[in-house]
Design a protein that fits this description.
globular, 3-stranded antiparallel sheet, mainly beta, 6-stranded antiparallel beta barrel, Elongation Factor Tu (Ef-tu), domain 3
Length: 163
Amino acid sequence: MVRENEIRQGEIAVDAPAPTDAGLVFIGTIRTPWVSRLMAPRQGRADGPICRIEIFPLWREALAGIEQFERLEVLYWLHLSRRDLVRQSPANDGSARGTFALRSPVRPNPIGTSIVTLVGVEGSILLVRGLDCLDGTPLLDLKPDRALFNPIAPPQPGDFEVG
């Protein structure tokens, strides 16, 4: 069972440096049924509850044309997550992996992502399925799911060279 802010066997926490301002701007708020990490699903589900993404008025015009996409990538700030674990034991079985090998919300920069299904648009509110974040989570960005796009141009010489 998940407990808030526990250190499990095999996990390692560090004294993380103080955050600096990267200039991020929240563009809205996400509304879900979950108020605690203990209640939230581990991953969003396509058949999950309809959640609301409320876009702040300043950014409403940025939604123009969004209804043509069935799936969106949602980026959000996991504002209640701890930021100090470098090794985590998600199964709580004593084995641990590095934070960057997991999709855990506990990260140095707690940015969450979900691919959601767009159910509807009501003014500056998007109705979606597939989220797994807590109610009140700050929204960082929205993008059409990149899997919906074809490359703009055919591959060019040097595209895949590593230098």
